[in-house]
Amino acid sequence: MTKINIQEKLSRFSDHWHPRIVGELNGQHVKLVKFQGEFVWHRHEEEDELFFVVDGAFDIEFRDKTVRVKAGEFLIVPRGVEHRPVAEEEVSVMLFEPAGTLNTGDAGGALTRGELDWI
Amino acid sequence: MTKINIQEKLSRFSDHWHPRIVGELNGQHVKLVKFQGEFVWHRHEEEDELFFVVDGAFDIEFRDKTVRVKAGEFLIVPRGVEHRPVAEEEVSVMLFEPAGTLNTGDAGGALTRGELDWI
What is the pLDDT of residues B32-55, one digit of tens each? Predict the structure, then answer.
C-alpha cells in the first residue's frame, strides 16, 4: 500500500517502446511507457488494452481511422483489433492491460519486450 | 474505439461519493468519482481497487496508517484490506476495479451506490 507518483516513475527511464510495470491488481498490470516514432501494426487476441496519456499526444492508427489521444484522455483498444501507435513527438503513456500482455501482440519483431521490469 | 476526455466527463456531474462508469476492459471498470468529506470504513473481499487522483488530494485511511494521495499519483488497495477515503476538500478520482465492485464493499449503508450509470 505505497502510493505511486507517475512523474517520479517516468523520470527513471528514457528509452522508447519499452514498458515498465508500476502496479498490479486483479490480474492486470499498470505500466508506464514512452513512445516516439512509429510502432508496428499488431493485435492482442485475448487482451483489451487501455492507453491513458500522461504527457504529450499521439495517434492510434486503426485500419479504418486514426484517433489522436492527448494528455488527460484515454482510449481502449478491444481485443482482436489491429492498431499501431504513432508518436510524432515523445509521449508518456500509462497502460492498463492483463498481466503478460506482449507489447507487439501477434506481430513479434525487434520491438518486442518479453520480460518487463518493475520500477 | 472512442477516446475519453477525463475533464469533460468530470464536468457532467457534481455530487460526491457517486461513481460513474467511463470504460470497460477485461472485466474491469474505469470509473470517475468526486469525494468530499468522510466515507465509511469498508473492505472489498474479492476486489483490488486502484485510486488515481486527477485533481486535488485526499487521504486513504488504513487501520495502521494514513496515506495522502495527490494529483498524478495512484494507490492500490488490495482485496480484504479495510480502508476509508477522507477528503478535506473536493477531489476527483479515477477508479480501476472489477466490474460490479460495490463502492461501500462489506459496509453497506446510505452511501451505497448499487447501480452505476455510464456517462
Answer: 999 999 999 999 999 999 999 999
For residue B94, being part of any structural domain is answered with: yes
DSSP letter for A115, please.
S
Over residues B49-99, the pLDDT tens digits come to 999 999 999 999 999 999 999 999 999 999 999 999 999 999 999 999 999
CATH number at residue B41: 2.60.120.10
**Residue B116 falls inside a structural domain:** no
3-class state of residue A57 by DSSP = strand
A77 chain-B contacts, CB cut-off 8 A: 1
Contact A73 B6 (CB under 8 A): yes
Any idea which residue has 518486442 for its cell? A112
Which residue in A97, A106, A86, A87 sits closest to A26, CA to CA?
A: A97
Number of domains in chain A: 1
pLDDT band at A12; cut points 50, 70, 90: very high
Range of the domain at A78: 31-104
Chain A residues with a Cβ under 8 Å from any Cβ in chain B? 1-7, 23-26, 28, 30, 47-50, 60, 62, 65, 67-69, 72-78, 81, 96-98
What count of CB pairs under 8 Å joins A to B?
93
Rounded Cα distance between B104 and B101, Å, is 9
This prediction has a pTM of: 0.97
Which cell numbers hold the place of A76?
481502449
Query: What ipTM was predicted for this assembly?
Result: 0.96
Domain contains B2: no
